[in-house]
Amino acid sequence: MIAPQKSGPQSGAGDRTLDSEEVERFSRLASEWWDPRGKFRPLHQIGPPRLSFIRDAAVKHFGRDAKTLHPLSGLTAVDIGCGGGLVAEPLARIGATVTAIDPSERNIAIAKSHAESQNLAIDYRATRVEDLVAEGRTFDIVACLEVVEHVPDPAKFIAECASLVAPGGLAVFSTLNRTLKSWALAIVGAEYVLGWLPRGTHQWDRFITPEELRRYAEAAGLADPHLEGITYNPLQDVWSRNPDTSVNYLLSARKPRPA
Questions:
Q1: Residue 114 to residue 182: CA distance in whole angstroms
Q2: What is the third-level CATH fold of 20-254?
């Protein structure tokens, strides 16, 4: 029987917002980012519900017309932990001016090459969230998807992400809930039984409950958190948005304007 494991010592000890072993793990897989049948197949599958959540949250928050092709036109967005660009590219396609960052230079190289082949202008940078904060950058939309469960100190990391949200802007996070169901499906099922993900991709003790994520977001100055789940239908092989947050889920929250 495979039991939930505690994570061991991480390289780069003392670095609260980056685990160098995690960065290296994803760097080794960089060539597979855009293979929908490869190691990142699950991210390709959950792409549509993730994007629709961001789009719907932004349309509602910024008062945009949901029926237009480019509802995010005129808005700036940053994709934190962008990997190969699976979120950055669709954000650009629906009108946002996108900056995308990742600590892995290999990931950024793959992302840049693919975006250029699609004639998409995305500002890709091999850097960290703290670097953008130090520059004083802010964005209308800050997206950080499937990243917080890979960092040593999610509260600190979320606070850094929230610093990038412009007053009146929107933050969106997605991650995995720390439940026995998520351990059974996201680790045992996805990594060991079905082989959707390389073994060791996730550490169950780093999964974050919705209550924890809400608390971290509010402590970072974000308000009115909204939660929604993403669930898998094995009969149709389709992922969709759902109220069930017991495994995969998303959270949106706004940055209040100064009084």
A1: 32
A2: Rossmann fold (3.40.50)
